[in-house]
Amino acid sequence: MGPTAISTSSLATQAAVSTQTVTRLERGEALKAATVGRLQAALEAAGIEFIPENGGGAGARFRKPSVSS
């Protein structure tokens, strides 16, 4: 099963912020640290993994599915 899209309104609802706040994030505008934290938590709950700086720049990717036996 591949990655699932998340809409602006869905992310806003999950993070308890407005859709305008999500749009500001997409534009790269500065947001309060608490707001960024709520957005990050919502994205992580949706399966996004944040990658720290490792010489190639920080980033994000879909988390690999766990393998159950």
> How many β-strands, per DSSP?
2
Strand arrangement in the largest pleated sheet:
1-2
Q: Unreliable runs, pLDDT <50, ≥5 residues?
A: none
| Arithmetic mean of pLDDT | 85
Anisotropy-based shape? globular
H/E order of the elements?
A: HHHEE
Return Rg in Å: 13 Å
Derived structural class: alpha+beta
Task: Give the oligomeric state.
Answer: single chain
Strand content: 5-15%
Major β-sheet profile: 2 strands, antiparallel
Number of continuous helical runs: 3
Q: Give the terminus-to-terminus CA distance.
A: 18 Å
Secondary structure: helix percent: 40-55%
Give a concise summary:
The protein is an alpha+beta fold and 69 residues long. The chain has three helices and two strands.
Describe the structure.
By secondary structure, the protein is an alpha+beta fold. The chain has helices at residues 8-15, 19-27, 33-45, and strands at residues 48-51, 59-62. The chain has a two-stranded antiparallel sheet. A hairpin with a 7-residue loop joins strand 1 (48-51) and strand 2 (59-62). It is globular. The model has no long low-confidence stretch (mean pLDDT 85).
Write the layout of secondary structure elements.
Layout: H1 8-15, H2 19-27, H3 33-45, E1 48-51, E2 59-62
Helix pairs in contact: 1-2, 1-3
